[in-house]
Amino acid sequence: MKISIRFFNDREVRAVWDQENAKWWFSVLDIVGVLNNESDYSKVRNYWKYLKAKLKKENNQLVSAATQFKFLAPDGKKRMADMLDSDGVTALAKNFPNNRAMKFLDWFLYSDTSIDGQSKKKAYTLFESNLINEFEVGTTKGLQQIHAYLFGGLYDFAGQIREKSISKGGYQFVYAQHLKATLQQIDAMPQKALDEIIIKYTEMNKAHLFMEGNGRSTRIWLDLMLKKRLKKCVDWSKISKGDYMNAMIISTVDSSVLIQVIKPALTNKINDREMFMKGIDYSYYYEE
Length: 288
What we know:
By secondary structure, this protein is of the alpha+beta class.
């Protein structure tokens, strides 16, 4: 089952792909929570129960248009949950006459043809293809292979080591003239234990190999090392954007905080499709 996560104001809106009907179904409870700005699962569920009864009494076709799929509940168990397709989501939002509903619809109906949007679609296909298993693990060449796949046809420098010096947020990445030597040192770094892998990852982040698209590429690079060496990968949904970005900033001088953030989020579900797709969703969300 193909699951996708989208983010509205840092809130998850989950969707399931219906292969038979070739369309996405969206979690009603996620949308109700967003529209009511409510994070309490019980309150969201009770409000939907009330609204559903009200709409049914009014003979509103929205209720009959809903279907059900198994979704992960807050207690960690998969339960049947109400879902709506895109037309149903639009109709549901119109039953919330507030500014938040209008902003949600503007966001929901927007068709993403940006570079990130196109690159994200390519990232999804890595799970289905065998190409990801052919990438070198933990090397500069392997990272170039990932970047070339994600951004090929989108950036003319896809997979190419930058020749210009760049900085971000006041932080100066490795100067272009020193990149070659730095990358040779990173390639030679060990990658057997978790600490070694995270330190290698932070060093590659400081090198910042490409002009754009470093974070999205390097997180896949990190997961490939974890899978090969430790039979683990990161459940990125367990790491908030704020915690991750803060740890990455600190990692330029101290990688221990990043290790503390990533270690509890490790899972052995290295061949799980949903885990991979969710990881891509969160990875691209971090870059927004």
